[in-house]
Structures are given as structure tokens and as C-alpha cells.
Amino acid sequence: MLSFENVCFSYGEAKALDGVSLALKKGELLTLLGPSGCGKTTTLQIAGGFLFPDSGRVMLDGRDVSALPPEKRPTATVFQSHALFPHMSVEENVAYGLRVRGTPRAERLRRAAEMLERVGLDGYLKSRVQDLSGGQQQRVALARALILNPRVLLLDEPLSSLDARLRVRMRAEIRSLQKAFGITALYVTHDQEEALSISDRVALMQGGRLVQVGTPEEVYFSPHGDFAADFIGDAFPVTLEGRRQLLRPDQIVVAADGPLVGTLVSRAFLGASTDWVIDWQGQTLRASVPSAAEPAREIGGEVRFAILPSRDRNA
Ligand SMILES: Nc1ncnc2c1ncn2[C@@H]1O[C@H](COP(=O)(O)OP(=O)(O)OP(=O)(O)O)[C@@H](O)[C@H]1O
């Protein structure tokens, strides 16, 4: 479908991508995940034809598209800012790409209306985009991309301008639209929860390279190295029975009859859960305690807990 073959790219002297090889399967949603500056957006822009590789190739349906500009590629991009035209109505925004392609007016408006119905915005055809909510604008941006019938949909942090609640709702909507259309999608985010919840596979990046590519469960339960374990799931290192291990906060279970005894160093209330930092034999542990079941404890007081075995299949 879409693949990157040993793609390298530099902005002047600064190397942004250092040999990225990745193949998307037909109909899958693959997420590029990683910290700021790791090269996610650069990879997406190379897929969309906004940037061209210094070396390596981008293949789409078996064809080398490395040198093609965006309008010559069967891709469509949804940007972080939505990039909608504020002076145009919703239907004009959605029909825009068809207008550029020379589709007759009656047909493009018919298809725009159809697409807006599919994203749940029928009734808003004549609205001005600035009168819509953030979530509705997001759906207009999706409809505008999907109407072009792209082979691959590219999404660059499409939810980052929305508030936290709407982000959670819209990621489910994007996922269900992507499945309903059966479209292959490349999605960029720096939010690990978003990546785990929305993806068929996650590609974790660091410093312009791919660290690990796998299903959400694979990258969570079998991280390749400390960076992956820490970035996806906040793992921390502990020495247990003379062996270094990576634990996650949900493996530390605070319980009155726990076999291990430590000292509570600090706690941070997060709502549904409360993060505890526990000192245990000079080692620092982090526990995620369900707030409803949080025992009353003084900072500096004794804490009893158990450690759940790791589900890491490589451990
Ligand atoms: N236009 C540019 N000119 C120079 N350097 C750039 C430019 N755009 C990006 N870079 C650099 O290239 C590297 C990769 O950037 P990129 O935007 O792909 O990362 P990212 O993972 O998408 O980060 P973010 O999540 O912050 O958007 C970074 O070190 C960044 O500083």
C-alpha cells in the first residue's frame, strides 16, 4: 500500500529522518508516535508530498511517488489547524477539492452533501465554518479530505486543537469513520493514550528513527528498550531479586495485607486515580492507586503493597 524505504531527510544540516522504513497495510490505521521533534510530522509530510526525501523512496500501490507533489498523489491530509476556508460555507469547503479537479458544480455539491451526511453534519451545509464548534470543524476537515477518495488519509495531530473531552470523543469518531470507509490511514500524535486507543499498529519514533512498530498491545506489553517502556506506559526501572526490571505504576498494588513495606514519599490526586511515590529499600516506586479505594496515609508513613508480575512477554 504505502511504504517508506530507508527514507532520510534533513532540514539544512539538521537530520530529521535517519533511515525510516515502514509499510502500511491496506485498510489499517497506523500511528506515528513519539516525543516532540522525533520526526513524525516530517514523515507525514514526506508521505503527502509536501517534502521530498534526500534519499530512499516512498512507494504507493507499487509506484514510486517520492518526487510527486501533493496534488499528484492519491493522498489527502487533515492538518492540526484544520486549515478550513473561513469565508466559505461548509459545503463549499468540502466540495473545494472537487472544484479544483474540475468536477461540475451540481455533482460536487451532491457529493459534498452525501459526505456531510456521513460525518453527521447534514443540516450544516450552508453554515459558515467559523460558526461551528471545534468538533464540527474537525468533521468538516475530515469530510473535505475523504471526498477526494484518497488511497491514503494522512492526519497530522488532528485533535490537538480540541479540549480533552472532545478529543476523546473525536478519536472514536475518526476511528469509526476510518473503518466505515475502509481507508488506509497514517496518523501522527505525541499522545500515547490516543495512539493506543485509535490504532491498528503504532510506530514509535525517537530522534528520526523508528524504535518499534507493533500493535498497541505489543508495544505496551513488550516494549523494545527503556525509551519505549517509559514513553508508552510510564515504566520505571527497579532491581528485584538482583535483576533489573521495568515496572509500570499499575503493577504496584497498595493493600493492607501487602507483603512488601515501603514509605510514602508523595501523592498526587488525578481524579480517578492517585499517583503515589513510594520509597522501598532505597528504590523509588510509582503506584497508580484507584482513588475510590485509596487508603488514608500520611506522607512519610508506612505503606504495604504487592508487585504484580509483568505481562511483558520478553521479560
Ligand atoms: N522547517 C524546519 N526547519 C528546520 N528544522 C526543522 C523544521 N521542521 C522541523 N525541524 C526539525 O526536524 C526535527 C523533526 O521535526 P518534526 O516536526 O518532524 O517532529 P515531530 O515529531 O513532528 O515534532 P512535534 O510533535 O513537535 O511536531 C526536529 O528536530 C525539528 O526541530
UniProtKB/TrEMBL annotation:
GO biological process, one term: quaternary ammonium group transport
Name of a matching Pfam family: TOBE_2
Entry-linked PROSITE patterns: ABC_TRANSPORTER_1 (PS00211), ABC_TRANSPORTER_2 (PS50893)
ABC transporter domain sequence ranges: 2-232
Keywords of the record: ATP-binding, Nucleotide-binding, Transport
Segments passing through the bilayer: none
One GO CC term on file: ATP-binding cassette (ABC) transporter complex
Gene3D superfamilies for this protein: P-loop containing nucleotide triphosphate hydrolases (3.40.50.300)
Listed InterPro entries: AAA+_ATPase, ABC_SmlMolc_Importer, ABC_transporter-like_ATP-bd, ABC_transporter-like_CS, Mo/tungstate-bd_C_term_dom, P-loop_NTPase, Transp-assoc_OB_typ2
Any one GO MF annotation of this record: transmembrane transporter activity
Protein's recorded name: ABC transporter ATP-binding protein
